[in-house]
Write the structure tokens for this entry.
Amino acid sequence: MESLGAFAVYAKEGDNPHSILFARNAEGTDWYDLKDLQGAFVVVDGEGGIVSFVETDITRIFPADQTVYQLSEIETVPEVGMQLNGGVFTAPVGETWRETASLPRKNFCLALLNAGILTKEAALDAAKGNWPQIFSSALAGVPEELAIQAEFDWATAQNVLRNHPILSPPLAAVAWPELNTEARDIKLDELFGWKETV
């Protein structure tokens, strides 16, 4: 995959009686100078890296404040709505997946261990159904009756829900305090095994 650049609209010098829009990349290449290129082209929004357009006819594209990529013949063409992460197109995480995602308690504790959130001893103890100290810290500001419910859920659960209404948000806040809410959600998704790519 080759980046053709991030294109921004600009005013071309001289008369423009038909009010034609022009765009160029950081190297100064005008978009219309690339009209003879062949292949599959992916237009990605600058913020968030979301695929907004996929086209094999470059003349049907006008990238206004967007980045354009040209795919090789062997690369899989992504779908509109996918996200570009580190050179790989991934399916965006949807609420449907989050609502149904879960891990066996043992696997969840191992994931917390591998993420550096629990020590080996704490993870082993938690896998037995005991309440980890970090959970108490996470629920410090939660009403007492909800905290008790979460503790009972933990003690009796075979599986841990990604979207547990009481536990998930505060646990993410304690585990990754330096991150914003969106970044914490991504970390939590990864913890529960979200790795779908094209």
Notes: The first strand starts at residue 2 and ends at 10.
